[in-house]
Structures are given as C-alpha cells and as structure tokens.
Amino acid sequence: DGGITQSPKYLFRKEGQNVTLSCEQNLNHDAMYWYRQDPGQGLRLIYYSQIVNDFQKGDIAEGYSVSREKKESFPLTVTSAQKNPTAFYLCASISKYSSATRDEQFFGPGTRLTVL
Amino acid sequence: SQQGEEDPQALSIQEGENATMNCSYKTSINNLQWYRQNSGRGLVHLILIRSNEREKHSGRLRVTLDTSKKSSSLLITASRAADTASYFCATEETSGSRLTFGEGTQLTVNP
Questions:
Q1: Cα distance between residue A94 and residue A102, in whole Å
Q2: pLDDT confidence of A2, banded at 50, 70, 90?
Q3: Cα separation of A93 and B74, whole Å?
C-alpha cells in the first residue's frame, strides 16, 4: 500500500529536550510538508521541501528544524527553542505530476506531542 | 497568514439534511481544495477545483468557486452521521508551492 507514515503516534517530551518526529512516504512524491495543529484550529505550515536537499520555512518555523536527505523522508526536529511545542503535528506530501491526483496533499496520521 | 476563512465555524444538522460550508480567501489562487478531518486523525482530500472551473461534483459533494468574490462553497447532500468531522478549505496561491488552510467548520450530523 502506498502512503505516508508518521511515528510515533504519541510523544512525550520533557522541557529542554529536542525530539524528532518521523515522516516517511512511498508515493514517490517530490514535495513534503510539516504542519502544526492546535486544538480547534486549522493547520499552520512549519517547513516544506520541494526537492531533496532543499527546504523552505513556512509561517511558524522558529524552534523547528528539518532535513531532506532522501526523497522518502522528511523528519522534523522540535528543539528546546520552541516555547510551546504541545500540539498535533501532521506531515503531508504532494505530486505535481500525477494526472489523477496532481496538487492534492496526502496526509499522514499525525503525531501528538506533549511537553511535560 | 491565514488565507481561507470558513463559515460557519460549527454546524449541526439532522441526518438526511444538506450541509453547506463556505470559504473566503484573499489572494489569487491556482486552485482551492476541501479536506476532511475526523477527530485526532490526518486530513483526507475531498475535492479540488481549479481557478478556471466554477462547479465540481464528486458523489454527494458539490463545490462551487467564485473567483470574482474570492469564495467557495461545499455542499454535502443527504448527510449521514458518518459525515461528522471537521472540514477545511485550502488554497494554492499562484506561486504554486504551498497550501494555506482555513480554520475549519465542525460539522455534526445527528442520527
């Protein structure tokens, strides 16, 4: 089955620790995205990457970092500099070339991060 | 910056009724998309309408786009309890590199 996986589903972090959220896709999509969602709210873009070894800041990049060493993987690190990291994190990918699903974002199941 | 704004924020209807949600946006777009999210889950793509299209159908879903008013509506006909979810509109601006999501409409369909 093709899709996007995120791990872990739930993550607990102590204040001052960095944590890394995993996002993997086997859809052969070029572009990948990380969003943050707070309760009852919409999605805010953290970082995105349109091609391997390249990524751009979104609207709320401060306190986060990413890497894109492989097409399939786009991990997100939540650093200790992020003041309020407790949230639901969603990863997505997109194909610009498929005629059937061009421009549609496919989402993973999300990771719920809680800072203790 | 928030591009899309959904209206209403919450909608409660009875099974079998139609549900209409609206989305307004501010800048020129390539396309507008609607997504659904069940509580605590990822988003699922429902339908995409491009800037040169005015109306699109998919099953019980009907989407309209009015680029002159910078607005879109999503109609769900003959709603079911399983349609209970949050619905988000998202716009792809003409730069083409990202989507911007609205705050969502929480739809509750009562059996």
A1: 7
A2: low
A3: 24
Residues A23-57 as b/e (b if ≥16 CB within 10 A, e otherwise) read: bbbebebebbbbbbbeeebbbbbbbbbbeeeebee
Mean of pLDDT over chain B: 93
* Phi, then psi, of B81 in degrees rounded to 5: -55, -35
Grade residue A49 by pLDDT with cuts at 50, 70 and 90. very high
Torsion of CA A8, A14, A15, A19, to 10 degrees: -30
Closest partner CB to B42 (pick from A31, A41, A110):
A110
Q: Going by C-beta distance under 8 Å and a sequence separation of 6 or more, which residues neighbour residue A89?
A: A6, A21, A34, A35, A36, A37, A46, A76, A110, A111, A112, A113
Average pLDDT over residues A77-91: 94
Query: Within an 8 Å CB–CB cutoff, is residue B88 touching chain A?
Result: yes
Residue with tokens 């006909």: B77
Is A43 an 8 Å CB contact of chain B? yes
Q: What tens digit of pLDDT does each residue of B19-63 get?
A: 999 999 998 999 999 999 999 999 999 999 999 999 999 999 999
Chain A contacts of B46, Cβ < 8 Å? none
